[in-house]
Amino acid sequence: MATLTSLSPTQSHNGQTLTLTGTGLANTTKVNFGTKSVSPATVSSTTVTVVIPVLCGGQVNVSVTAGTTTSNSLSFFYITPPLPTAVVSNTGPAAATSVSVFGSGLLTATGVTFGAVGAGTSLTVVSDTELTVTCPAHGSFGAASTDTVDCTVTTAGGTSVPLGAATQYTYYAVPTVTSLSPTSGSAPTSVTVTGTNLVGVSSVTFTPTGGGTATQATFSSASATSLLVDLPSGLAAGTYDVQATTPGGTTAVVAGDVFTVV
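Below the sequence we write its predicted structure tokens.
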């Protein structure tokens, strides 16, 4: 008669190995997780190992079938793998930035990884459906302006699998403005702004040099290196810094971004 005396571990998730210890186990043909049965990986008279299958979360009774009889059962707690469903916000600068991850099975989260960029820091579990984490700073972008990575969560239930856009985070390189053409004029005038990493632009402003109130301008994005901007009407004569803002930040004030309203 097969008899179980212990399980190791007593809680885990699918894909991990469960070791069952007892007596009379030599003829074990099945390991039963509630009503779900799987074949053992190894069998001896005192030990059976099995790869834990996908189960419903929570407690389940584990037993073995040896020959025509079934052993006593022991309690095992199945931890559901994490299932992140959204990252908010899902875009940001190259610098380390705090984001929220929403989903299910997040309560025992121990880490969040952002693709090849690396592990996040300052992980705080808010609830089983929400956590906050600071994504790691991004290094060089090379010739690219953005880098989209998969955000995966590791818990006592394992590591989540990438689910596509909903659980991805996009880093944006810092934008720059290097020159304007023309550099002076009056409305209506279209100004070509040349620079780098001008993707995902959310606003373009004209701010009096030396400080003052910024005026929003309408624009269209031609490429990562140029923007076509309409000079706002009503600007007083003088000089203005033209700055663009993307998820990667706002362009720094430089000599090449100055436009003169005449």
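The longest strand covers residues 146-155.
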